[in-house]
Amino acid sequence: LTGAQDGSVRMFEWTRPQQLVCFRQAGNARVTRMYFNAQGNKCGVADGEGFLSIWQVNQTTSNPKPYLSWQCHSKTTSDFAFITSSSLVATSGQSNDNRNVCLWDTLVSSGNSLIHAFTCHDHGATVLQYAPKHQLLVSGGRKGYICIFDIRQRQILFTFQAHESAVKALALDPSEDYFVTGSAE
Fold first, then answer.
1. Considering just the CA atoms, what is the radius of gyration of the chain in Å?
2. Residue 60's Cα: distance from chain center in Å?
3. Which CATH topology does 2-183 take?
4. How many CB atoms lie within 10 A of CB 57?
5. CA 152/CA 161 separation, integer angstroms
6. Within the chain, how many helices (H) and strands (E) appear?
7. How far, in Å, CA of 80 to CA of 50, rounded?
8. CA distance 7 to 134
9. What are phi and psi of 16, to 5 degrees?
10. Distances (CA, A) of 169 to 27, 72, 105, 140, 181
11. Tens digit of each residue's pLDDT (9 = 90 or more) over 120-138
12. Are 25 and 66 spatial neighbours (Cβ–Cβ below 8 Å)?
């Protein structure tokens, strides 16, 4: 799966030089993040205008429409994570009201899909990681802060400053004992 500054999203197969599917054409908002769900049957694309779109991967048309697309943040959606069986999605981004980390239910109508919004990260959240064993979200922000959320209780557990500049990367070890942050500095 490839995403570009021009907003295009294309899927390729290892043994074929040409694309299998073009999910989005050039001319859309820049792609900020893309993932497959754990089952590999869906892919999601976040963009610079605050949208998250999700497609079924096994499309037969060359230019399919997403089965779900909604604006998660008013300015940008920078990252997201599929939670559980991909019916729950967490997003990070920047919104005018500082609700910069959100939980969404993909099985209900778009007007009711927001489950919870966390007010955190002045100037926006840049990255997000989901720790399934502990049911935690870890997010990084533009000012170098890290927030850890308990998604079962829907509350912020910890906030601390890890860097002097924007957090650009988060990695979680497989046993979920540690996480590592990387910044713009």
1. 16
2. 25
3. Methylamine Dehydrogenase; Chain H (2.130.10)
4. 17
5. 24
6. 0, 17
7. 11
8. 34
9. -120, 135
10. 27, 21, 25, 8, 6
11. 999 999 999 999 999 999 9
12. no
Are 27 and 7 within 8 A, CB to CB?
yes
Q: How far apart are CA 47 and CA 80, in angstroms?
A: 10
pTM score of the predicted model: 0.93
Residue 75 bridge partners (DSSP):
none
Phi first, then psi: what are they for 59, rounded to 5°? -85, 145
Model confidence over 55-105: pLDDT tens digits? 999 877 777 899 899 999 999 999 999 997 778 999 999 999 999 999 999
Residue type, 63: N
**Bridge-partner residues for 52, per DSSP?**
46, 70
Token duo for residue 90: 């967490």
Q: Which CA distances in Å does 96 have to 93, 101, 116, 155?
A: 10, 12, 16, 20
Asked if 115 and 88 touch (Cβ cutoff 8 Å), the reply is yes
